[in-house]
Amino acid sequence: MPSSPTPAPGTRANNLARILRLVHEDGAQSRAALTERTGLNRSTIADLVAELVQRGLVDERVPDVPGRVGRPSPVVTASANVVAIAVNPEVDAIELAAVGLDRGILVRERLLNEALPTPDAVAATIVDRIAAWRRGPLADSRVEAIGIAVPGLVRSSDGVVRNAPHLEWADVPLAELVATATSLPTVVDNDATLGAIAEHRYGAGRGIDDIVYLNGGASGIGGGLVIHGRPVAGAGGYAGEFGQNRPRISADEDRRTADGVLEAEVSRRLLLDAVGLEAADDETLDTALSAAESSTVTEEITRQSHVLASALANAVNVLNPALIVLGGFLATLAELRGVQIADAVAELAMSESAEGLQIRQAALGADRLLIGAAELAFADLLADPGERS
């Protein structure tokens, strides 16, 4: 995800951005807390908050504290009425949500696909849902921008989808296409990259600065990296494609393809087949796998966990993360075979690289990609609220 330019430190524009980001990322803050965290004086904080209120970016209220003597410090919250439209087009469904600047999800829909969605169909769906929401739950809201999380290689500089093989998209100028259709600023990035950002800021990776994130979805397995607290996308924005790596498979019975990549061996489709489902969202698949008593299902879960662990060990050896976060159907594998996966990673990875390693399920669940897409959409506003609002 490209970095948005931030105003020079010490300027009014920079201080506005600091306050808005604090209440966006950390939730409601009293003026007193903002004074302490920023080092600015009380009158400056009051002036900056007043400007953000005037711009409609934050709300301020005086809390009702029973029994308190004196006037309590006003509480500042990011506005729920400034929203980003978050979109995740997948092979089985298009998920959309309106996410407030306060990170609340105002409305969310999952629209099943009858066929692979084309870029034009995705753009038309976004136009349709925004129009419908503006007549309903977003009637009093201001739509800031659109963020799209795509399961494929995205050139982050301009939002061109270079290759989304499962969607059968190649060199699609998706950001331009959707921006033209909606007349709204639109940004696009890889879904797992955005999932990594969301989990780092708000989920399982909060407070940890070296993270490998793997996302398991209908289109396969993607990855995102956070190194020294910053997302790492690579020269073109394509880093983290763990699903295209070839895992070490030592047991022939664990192999499903002659020379398969990780996402061919560790597959949502194979898990759906094992439980007899044609399609399902993550929650439904998780429930089916957790409740299954068939040896066919349990053996498939165990097999995929073996293969996944070998891929994770390779990532540990190369990147030496403090934390691995698993999202989507990979989180279900971690839930059901967490000890097996952790033990296998410890056995296969270099012991020094695996010291202190934690493996966790994504804490944001089904919201992770949409929250990541919303963060992408809000990036320019958060970097310079005086310029964008």
TrEMBL record:
Q: Name one GO molecular function term.
A: kinase activity
- Keyword vocabulary terms for this entry: Kinase, Transferase
- Report TM segments: none
Q: Which domain of life is it from?
A: Bacteria
Record-linked InterPro entries: ATPase_NBD, ROK, WH-like_DNA-bd_sf, WH_DNA-bd_sf
To which protein family does this belong?
Belongs to the ROK (NagC/XylR) family.
Name assigned to this protein: Sugar kinase of the NBD/HSP70 family, may contain an N-terminal HTH domain
